Here is the input.
Amino acid sequence: MGTEEVRGPKAPKDPIKKKPFFFIMQGKDIYGAPQPDGRGIQFIYESDGRLINAARLSGNITDDYMLELLKTTEGFRKMVHSIGVSVSSRVPDEKVRFVFQMYGETQTDPTSTQITLDFETDGMERIIKMSDVDWKASDKEPGQIRFEFPEPGIQASVDVRFYLNNGFVAPIQPIDTMVDFASKGYKEMINRSLMQTGNTARLEKVLQKAGKGEDVCLAFIGGSITQGAGAIPIHEKCYPRLFAETFEKKYTNGGKVDFIKAGVGGTPSELGMCRFERDILRQGAKQPDLIVIEFAVNDEGDETKGVCYESLVRKALALPWKPAVVLLFAVFSFDWNLQDRLGPVGVRYDLPMVSIMDAVTPQFTLLPNDGRVISKNQFFYDQFHPSNLGHQVMSDCLINLVDEVNGKAVSESFSLDEKELDKITPVIGADFEKVELVDKHELKRLSRKYHITLMSEGSFNSEDKELQMVEMDKKIEPVAEFPYNWAHASTENDPFRLKLTCSKLLLLFKDSGSTAYGTAEVYVDGQKIMDADPLKVGWTHCNAVILFNEKESTSHVVEICMAKGHEDKKFTILGFGVVE
Here is the structure.
């Protein structure tokens, strides 16, 4: 026989032995949210302990020394040899850019390191060696990870591993089993969420309306979890949307669900009560049949320790068409919420209450064979927000409440009206039940009621357009929070002066992560009340603080000016919360 050239695949080289590693993301869903420049980006923030929690949840890291190293760029470089990244999408040759950004003195420090890699979403792992990175001296801490797509709307799944330098040992990495939604264990977990059904009359009324084929309006107000954080995509897989769609399928008899989603990330009920008429009632254009209130993981910083929360609950209950009001208690990854503080409000008004903490936390510590239904890594997207699975669980817990009421309807239940509500003594307090938002847009409408005179805008005569952006209702395009504002953006320091008659007053101002913003001094009737520092929180979001809380309504003059040494800095007054 003649010699023939044998064609075929060459024998591969022996694989290079990989270093020990741990996950910070495993099978994490991402979505390219639309950006002003036409791209789609998924932001995943890793500062303020988020990276540490990701190492705990996804990587099974329990070693305190290793976790401590993740707090700083210096520690990260000491431990991490390389980063392994893989992205899978429906279109394997889709382009994606991975960015791991360090933070310097501020989040927006332009001199900090950005580790980047461009590749395809074909599921193959790419390795980035830390020795190849051009590190910057200004780096302080790991800041954020971004997956940047050339166009919006791309959904994908990602794995990110940290391979370790010599001397570091990684634990066995957890492999999650599928969640069995039809299992007895899942149903038992969901049933645990029902804290109490309470007085069901208002909720029965919603079900009766839906059963007649009439349209019903379902509204949700809360923080970032209600906004949909952790859901991919945020506007479709968030628990409010899932609940609304399931409700429509199960309970409407030919009618439709009008859906209102009004979650704002990082904000408590102190801000929620101020924006209630605008964001839930849409300035009188909407009359929700059901209002779900979710602030159990946002109210830790509430300076009133529950007064604002109860004020918001009473504001919803007092609406003349008597909507059903449900209190929802979400949970953080460290098995915490504020239901012990806020739950008594629901008891006092005999409201339906649902606790996600009661549902999921008892089974987190179990092994699958011992009854674990869903792991902590599966439920949480990060240390604060649920994943798609977590949002599904939250929706199912709310549906479980409706199922319970639907199956045991007692239509003779007495429904509180405003007159009866006034007879109930608040369990914490209701000082701000009748609070209203006054901003540049509402100033004229409310001027007579509160005897408002805008004495001078001073140098706060600009309008800030770089605001916290929020996905509302079913939309993926975010809208700006509090666009009708008074912004200081000059080198002058002429005070903003407002005269009004009220008993209680809150200042709403913008937080920022940019050092272009500075501290403002706030005076009431010539007396300094506070220094409003927009850099305390470190990111762009809305802040609400109480300036005074008095029993009687009297005339006051509010004056705001930039603090000494901050005259050339920016500051934005978003509005005021006013009680007559």
Observations:
- The radius of gyration is 26 Å.
- Residues 1-16 have pLDDT under 50 and may be disordered.
- The first strand starts at residue 21 and ends at 31.
